[in-house]
Amino acid sequence: MTKKLSVGGQAVIEGVMMRGPGKIAVAVRKADGTIAVDLDGVGTIGDRYPILKKPLIRGVVSLCESLYYGMKALSYSAQVSGDEEETLDSKEMALTICTSVLLAVGLFIVIPTWTMRFLHSFTTNALVLNLTEGLLRLGIFLSYIWGISQMSDIQRVFQYHGAEHKTIFTYEHGLPLEVENVRPFSTLHPRCGTNFLMIVMLISTFIFAFLGWPSLPVRILSRVILMPVIAGISYEIIHYAGSHMEKTWVQKAIWPGLCLQKLTTRQPDDSQIEVAIASLKAVLPEEEIIGENAEKVS
User: Fold this and answer.
1) At residue 30, does pLDDT exceed 50?
2) Rg of the chain's alpha carbons, rounded to an integer?
3) The pLDDT value given to residue 1
4) How many CB atoms lie within 10 A of CB 241?
């Protein structure tokens, strides 16, 4: 089987964003039932500065670029699907991303480490305090995911998330991108961003456990400063796991993230799969699409 391109995606409002080498596409189901596809060229800053493609560094770069393109795709999908009348400009997008990051820092860093003041009255053991903080952070994260998964609008996004995974699996297995071929595949994918977030939570708990227990401002600052390091390590784990799924220990290592995907994905219907297929086909090289059509004819 010919080696397939590395493609990734994201669910958006009533649609799917797919990103391949040099192209990014957002396919959205419009209110009239048709599918709108926005295709654009995309690069990475790593092309201009090769050092940014080095292990550990590339994960942070990838995360930042994913946030930017993800917000852009969400803005487009909201407009096309009819949820919003205007798209976000660059300044509004930057403000939205900054606000989201600050909220994440408050929810997953400030609150957990501040809450440990109550446990500190019972023990001064830094390892116990750090591990308990990590467990609390993980609990907040899981509660947040579970909470939003109960919202009807989010459940539709999670269906498109499932359609994205199934479609990518179909492509990776060399099958023609047709609804019938996509349906049987799993909604759980080892390279999913949900896996990445779970690994970030687990790696951060391990690393922070050995930092001692300084003052609250120092704890918050140290955790924020180390997040790029943790993101870099987590990216390398996901990157390795995606190409070594045959190894038993890899399957066990990504198992927590796959379990979490059961919250962030839902089984899609055929119309949602069609949207994911349209998005993926848009970023594939023309010769692959021609080859697929030729296979159908034969």
Assistant:
1) yes
2) 20
3) 44
4) 20
* Structure confidence at residue 141 (pLDDT): 94
Nearest to 166 by CA among 150, 157, 151, 179: 179
Query: Is the per-residue pLDDT at 286 higher than 80?
Result: no
Which of 222, 220, 207 has its CA nearest to residue 127? Answer: 207
CA dihedral 206→211→213→219, nearest 10 degrees, is: -90
Give the confidence band of 297 by pLDDT, cuts at 50, 70, 90.
very low
pTM: 0.86
Q: What is the mean pLDDT of residues 211-225?
A: 94
Strand partners, 24: 19, 40
**Beta strands 23-29 and 8-12: pairing type?**
unpaired
Residues composing the chain: 298
CB-based contact 280:9 (threshold 8 Å):
yes
The secondary structure of the chain, three-state, reads CCCCCCCEEEEECCEEEEEECCEEEEEEECCCCCEEEEEEECCCHHHHCHHHHCCCHHHHHHHHHHHHHHHHHHHHHHHHHCCCCCCCCHHHHHHHHHHHHHHHHHHHHHHHHHHCHHHHCCCCCHHHHHHHHHHHHHHHHHHHHHHHHCCHHHHHHHHHHHHHHHHHHHHHCCCCCCHHHHCCCCCCCCCCHHHHHHHHHHHHHHHHCCCCCCCHHHHHHHHHHHHHHHHHHHHHHHHHHHHCCCCHHHHHHCHHHHHHHHHHCCCCCHHHHHHHHHHHHHHCCHHHHHHHHHHHHC
